[in-house]
Design goal:
With about 250 residues, this protein is α/β, with parallel strands linked by helices. The protein contains eleven helices and eight strands. The longest helix is centred in the last third of the chain and has 18 residues. The radius of gyration is 17 Å and the shape is globular. Keywords: Gluconeogenesis, Glycolysis, Isomerase.
Length: about 250
């Protein structure tokens, strides 16, 4: 069976009530490809509002959560809190979390393990920097980041989507070419076949993220191993609907 196309919109730290209502209305009124799964990554403070305003057919994700369920962790939110407001997903390991907030592979793995234990679905992000790509280390980096996730995921791969986001393509307008993205996705699948299982390699969905727009989405979506997108900037704009419909 084919992998279901999955498009995530990661609003990052953008949007206040007016803009959020506009984006939500665009999604509610837009004609969306029914064969695509859609997940919106919302700032924590707006999770409940967005969840109650969107139809259940559209998933809602937190953009981060801590590895413990409760306690003295000022400023953090927990997996049970995300569940409590009705959101189903969490984005973990985004490169902005890794670089700006110093999240290591092992911390990301602990967060992934805890989120999955609470039956949240996880978009787990990986990707190399420009320096790493230019020194020929792309595979080494994404394999290392994925390897750290393997014990954390255990037998819960069905609840995980991997997002390959080359850091040099995020918010820069410099998209990976379809061939560059496809090559990394195919290598990841091969690595998963060798290090996890053929079944996981074949079934796990791998999104591409990094300057995806309505203008480049169709060509990227046509690649064999690209199963969707994690979209930042363009997910705040009406063109997000066209990105969701990229396979149509
Ligand atoms: O999570 C989304 C990615 O960081 C991509 O962001 P972008 O589409 O603004 O480049």
């Amino acid at each position: 069976m084919g992998r279901k196309f999955v498009v995530g919109g990661n609003w990052k730290m953008n949007g206040q009530s007016n803009q959020i209502n506009e984006i939500v209305n665009n999604l509610k009124n837009g004609s969306l490809d029914r064969s695509a799964e859609v997940v919106i990554g919302v700032p924590a403070i707006y999770l409940a509002q967005v969840r109650s305003n969107l139809p259940k057919s559209i998933g809602v994700a937190a953009q981060n959560c801590w590895k413990a369920d409760k306690g003295a962790f000022t400023g953090e939110i927990s997996a049970p809190m995300i569940k409590d407001v009705g959101a189903e997903w969490v984005i973990l390991g985004h490169s902005e979390r890794r670089t700006i907030f110093g999240e290591s592979d092992s911390l990301v793995a602990e967060k992934v393990a805890n989120a999955l234990q609470h039956n949240l679905k996880v978009i787990a992000c990986i990707g190399e920097t420009l320096e790493e790509r230019e020194s020929g280390k792309t595979e080494e980096v994404v394999f290392r980041q994925t390897k750290a996730l393997v014990p954390a995921i255990g037998d819960k791969w069905k609840n995980v989507v991997l997002a390959y986001e080359p850091v040099w393509a995020i918010g820069t307008g410099k998209t990976a070419s379809p061939q560059q993205a496809q090559d990394v996705h195919a290598s990841l699948r091969k690595w998963l076949a060798e290090n996890v299982s053929a079944e996981v390699a074949q079934s796990v969905r791998i999104q591409y993220g990094g300057s995806v727009t309505a203008a480049n989405a169709k060509e990227l979506a046509a690649c064999e191993d690209i199963d969707g997108f994690l979209v930042g900037g363009a997910s705040l704009k009406p063109e997000f609907v066209n990105i969701i419909n990229a396979r149509q």
